[in-house]
Design a protein that fits this description.
single chain; three-stranded antiparallel sheet; 7 helices; 58% helix; elongated
């Protein structure tokens, strides 16, 4: 699993997908095609960045977060800076939506039905991610 796909990788995937779909290929041409590709690549990069931020907070967590609390933590900066003691301020405008955060993590996290607590889906996920070069220490 590669959590750190680069823009060019995403662009090639999207271009291939559009070319494989003859209807989409006929509808999207020229400058519009380039604009669509650029927009999709930026969205994919943003989702990857959000997932990395969420996982960076969840991996070393010693407490349980609700999805809303995790979103607030993400808005203060990345978890590594926070854990080293730098003071960060919550900025509501920078907080991602809870559903977007959950979706960005692509099944690597679960949310408790009654508690609303978000956690890694399984201990093996944590073990893998702790040794993954894509996750900052």
């Amino acid at each position: 699993m590669n959590l750190n796909a680069k823009g060019q990788d995403v662009r090639v995937y999207v271009e291939t997908s559009i070319e494989d779909d003859s209807t989409a290929c006929d509808l999207i041409k020229g400058d519009l095609r380039d604009e669509v590709l650029t927009t999709l690549v930026k969205k994919c990069e943003g989702i990857t960045t959000l997932a990395l931020k969420a996982l960076t907070w969840l991996i070393p967590a010693r407490c349980t977060y609700t999805v809303e609390a995790l979103c607030m933590a993400i808005s203060t900066g990345d978890g590594t800076r926070q854990l080293r003691g730098d003071l960060r301020v919550f900025n509501e405008a920078d907080a991602p939506l809870p559903k977007t955060t959950q979706d960005a993590c692509c099944g690597l996290v679960t949310i408790g039905d009654s508690s609303g607590a978000i956690r890694l889906a399984h201990y093996s996920v944590q073990e893998y991610l702790e040794h993954s070069p894509e996750i900052p220490e």
